[in-house]
Here is the input.
Amino acid sequence: MPDSLEIVSQDAARRAGLRYVNDRTPGIRRRRSRGKNFTYSGVDGKTVKGAKTLARIKTLAIPPAWRDVWICALPDGHLQATGRDARGRKQYRYHAEWRATRSENNFSRMVAFGDALPRIRKQIEADLKLPGLPQAKVVAGIIKLLDATAIRVGNAEYARDNHSFGLTTMRRRHVEVNGKKIRFQFQGKSSKHHAVEFADHRIASIIRRCQELPGKELFNYFDEQGVARDISSDHVNQYLRDASGERFTAKDFRTWVGTVAASCVLSQLREEDSGGTTKQHFDTAVKAVALHMGNTPSVCRKYYIHPGLADAHRDQKLVCRGPANKKVWTGFSRAQRPATAEAARAAAKA
Here is the structure.
């Protein structure tokens, strides 16, 4: 049965008019020939000589250092190539139409997600009050962390293949708890080191109880028979669907946080009359969001900040709700505000 990420990918492939594929199916293989050159073997084992296929492979720009390279035999496969980089991490090349559809879908869902967010947060608060360590309580705690820190939800395949971790794949060694203070230190996507702090006595209590259970994974729950079970990203995405009544995923949280953070920074820059052009303001906001979310500025600009935000700032259509004499961080928890403010200051100096 496909997991939640596969279902989302399959849906994006269908809407883009592409075929959903994976690298477990036969494909084109790359092998080095003379010097820096490569040859390619088709599914039938014969050398690929077709001009169109070779041109398609060239446009994928697969790094020469990749090994175990698999290339989709179909030009309309949503996944076009995979391989291992020099550090052994699995890397992917997706079809341009699939990437565009995913990006468009992420942003088109933002209004609906914003409307559903109060319902999701209300359910989280209710489930955090549950006794013991049931699945709903632990997943609610994970989503609370996701909402407040923007840490990725995590993927078992990335943890296994690339040793990159997120909330559902954290190991016990990745967290320290002192009273209500929680500190995460872990390697995330692209081998980037993350150090994230958060304070909440309810989440700290859940983590301490989870740490008492056997196993490497940090987050576990007790099922109805009292057996300890691991939490996965599927549990998180199912919780979001049940709480919202919509097909939202953890990715929607990061898109929301990225756009809200950028909006807050832009509003603050305007309130402070900091000078600079609209482009300079937007660049500062992008850098701030990148620091807050642990991404590069280019990734944040492309995937986590709504493309209409720059125009809204230019046209002075960004609105801060709340008392005029306070800095308002719309949509942010108290834990998020200092982190984002610090990111804004750091970005302004960069």
Summary: DSSP finds 13 helices and ten strands in the chain.
